[in-house]
Amino acid sequence: MNIPQHIAIIMDGNGRWAKQQGKPRNYGHLAGTENVRNIAIKADELGVKVLTLYAFSTENWKRPDDEVGYLMSLPAVFFRKFMKELMEKGVRIATIGNLDAVPEATRKVIEDAKRQTAENKGLTLVFAMNYGGRADIVQAANKAIAQGKTVLTEQDIEENLYTAGYPQIDLMIRTSLDYRLSNFLLWQLSYAELYFTDCYWPDFNEDRLTEAVEWFSNRERRFGGLK
Ligand code: IPE
Ligand code: IPE
Ligand code: MG
Questions:
Q1: Options 3.30.565.10, 3.40.1180.10, 1.10.530.10, 3.10.20.90; CATH of 6-131+169-217
Q2: CA 120–ligand 2 middle distance (angstroms)
């Protein structure tokens, strides 16, 4: 099987999953957070090098305060519960997005997890936290300008994106059957294979990931050329 080196996932549908069983939205967010552990470990087993997960977008601040607050408390829940196992598996934690605008306590938990896992050599698990694709391109351009560039090339942008240094994204998965990018990795997805599934994120299990990777494996990628 042709394994994607870098998979990005829009983990959508936590709210609908909860509603389906008559539970509050935050119940879905907790289930979704726990599912991250399963999918990260399975991705590592499959031989994926980098897994980038959309955890919170620059648009998600529009949600009610109590939901935003709950989402910001989840990194602490996740690392408290799974850090030991992530260390055993050699998972390295990273982030993309603007962490400066994230509440101090949340930022600290995330920075601690990054520090603690910095030397790990297994899967790189990247959380897109307060991430927006447009903001990413703008900050990359501004960094290049700060380096003294006046006319920017694609390479100048590429090298300054939050994702600089990671392999190209081969496969993008969105759960819950909305066919849009919602401002995720706009630059980086230019040649990714796009996979949409009706499954809500908390139900997207290891077998579903394997199915997506098998589907990817059968794509013919031409990158504009001919086969
Ligand atoms: C995805 O689930 C999680 C985040 C956006 C943080 P949603 O909360 O968007 O769930 P739905 O789309 O309302 O079902
Ligand atoms: C995208 O999902 C953001 C995350 C999964 C973190 P949304 O639920 O916010 O996207 P829209 O609002 O349906 O486009
Ligand atoms: Mg949603």
A1: 3.40.1180.10
A2: 30
